[in-house]
Design brief:
By secondary structure, the chain is mostly helical. The protein has a single domain, classed as Hypothetical protein af1432 (Orthogonal Bundle), CATH 1.10.3210.10. Helix content is about 70%, strand content about 0%. The chain contains eleven helices and no strands. Helix 6 runs antiparallel to helix 7 and helix 9 runs parallel beside helix 11. The longest helix has 18 residues. It is globular, with a radius of gyration of 16 Å. The N and C termini lie far apart (about 55 Å).
Length: about 180
Amino acid sequence: MKDDKEFFEELFSWRDLEDFSRAMQVARTAHVGQLRDEGTPYIEHIEGVIKILKEELDIQIDSALSVAALHDVLEDSDRFTYEDLKKTFGTVIADGVLLLTKKDGQDMKTYMENIHKSDIKWLMIVKLADRLHNLRSIKLTGNPEKIIRKCKETRDYVLTYAHKYPIIKKKLLSELQELERKYG
């Protein structure tokens, strides 16, 4: 049985300020040399999601920002494992990253439901910020099929969970409508 100190250290990292800085270092290492479909360095996506959280949504929870920094480390890099993240950042951050990692073959509905059912209440807002940044940058890919697929996923699955967050829902709808006008 864990004592109170161990329980709370696992539940909420007491070294949050260190965590975010280290999370950015891990993200930079994990995504070094990687490019997104639109040809930009992968780390720019991570920075874009964090910027949305901090500047547009006023999210200052360091553990949420750490998860945002790490959200694609397990999915798009083979340099770190869940166990590495758990050892470095603790269970809450590692579990958040794991839940944001879409498994091979996992359908979008199940993926979004798993995030929604999480005990980490701010996890959905990280996912919504991720999707918002993806919608903002996807037009640069020049890939109409991918754009249409991501728009459909957003409308069919992501917006369902955005109703609790009217600011980001409005932003998602605005980006979605612009893309649908052009590619829909």
